[in-house]
Specification:
Layout (H helix, E strand, L loop, with lengths): L12 E3 L7 E8 L8 E3 L5 E8 L4 E5 L6 E2 L5 E3 L3 E6 L2 E3 L4 E3 L6 E3 L3 E3 L4 E4 L4 E4 L6 E3 L2 E4 L8 E4 L13
Parallel strand pairs: 1-3, 2-4, 3-5, 4-6, 4-7, 5-8, 8-11, 9-12, 10-13, 11-14, 12-15, 13-16, 14-17
């Protein structure tokens, strides 16, 4: 077609709860995100590695609180997206064994995330969690296990903090 490509020229790759054992590898995802994000996860937990996400509207990867992707952040390239990270939308974690274990990609909380009563969230050493504003909270009604190490602390910081994890907040 005629014209130049631009962020938001098409929707996104949408993985839902029925998309079991999905893998995205050695892929380039660009100029998507008409609805926000290059990849959208709804109760989905794909494996993503060796992939470039660039020039997408919204965050590179957008997920709800019931999605737990396995992402090799060391082989992922995120550039010039509206947000260069794994966006976790506001909501309630209800799983009894939820885990945020991905290093090399920042978790960007863009709305309140609540660990529900009876639910549990474990955050692994070296994980970076960035919160997007004064009214964005991580609320614990269940159990939070965030045990970093001296060598690999867990960071809870501002979306604007580029000193850890790089520039997450946008292109």
């Amino acid at each position: 077609g005629s014209g130049s490509p631009a962020p938001g020229n098409w929707g996104y790759i949408h993985l839902r709860s029925t998309s079991t054992d999905s893998v995205i590898s050695h892929s380039v995802i660009r100029y998507g995100g008409y609805y926000g994000g290059g990849i959208r996860l709804q109760s989905a937990s794909p494996t993503i590695s060796n992939t470039t996400l660039t020039w997408n509207n919204g965050y590179a990867i957008r997920a709800d609180t019931s999605s737990y992707p396995v992402i090799d952040g060391h082989t992922l390239i995120l550039e010039n997206n509206e947000g260069n990270g794994l966006q976790i939308e506001g909501g309630t974690i209800t799983a009894s064994n939820a885990r945020w274990s991905n290093r090399g990609i920042d978790y960007a909380l863009t709305g309140d995330v609540t660990i529900g009563s009876g639910a549990s969230l474990t955050i692994d050493p070296g994980v970076i969690v960035k919160l997007s504003g004064a009214y964005t909270d991580l609320i614990v009604d269940g159990r939070l296990r965030a045990q970093g190490t001296a060598e690999n602390p867990i960071y809870f910081t501002s979306i604007n903090d580029d000193t850890v994890g790089g520039h997450t907040g946008g292109s």
